[in-house]
Amino acid sequence: MLGKYTVRYHHGHDHSHDELEGHDHVHTHSHGETQENKDEKTLKILLVHWVNHNESHEEGFKEWVEKARAIGKNDTADSIEKAIEYLQKANEMLVEAKKNM
Fold it and tell me: Which residue ranges are recorded for the region named Disordered (predicted)?
């Protein structure tokens, strides 16, 4: 299991994680591990992280769709809903990428 680590691969803010939940655990004490192996392990972690991160944004987007509609900004709400659809499609592709690891 990994200890605390920080992911810095998206839009300017960091996320700290105490452990990896619900996916392959990576042991960082391997000796003689190649950069390719390290990159593969990191990519597996990131694919799961990106899906979870996107899902956390989706909740906020849905909240703002309702708020936009409440103030009469239906075109704005429609665009946010479209963004949610794209986010869901992106997650499908990230899950597919993880399956191909």
Answer: 1-39
Cα–Cα nearest to 51, from 1, 7, 3, 2: 7
Render pLDDT for 33-71 as a digit per residue (tens, 0 to 9).
Answer: 899 999 999 999 999 999 999 999 999 999 999 999 999
Please tell me the distance from the alpha carbon of residue 35 to that of residue 71, in angstroms, as a whole number.
52
CA distance 92 to 98: 10
Altogether, the residues listed in the chain come to a count of 101
What one-letter code names the amino acid at 75?
D
E strands in the chain: 5-7, 15-17
Given this model, what pLDDT does residue 43 score?
A: 97
d(C-alpha 43, C-alpha 16), whole Å: 17
Q: What range does the domain containing 62 cover? A: 5-99
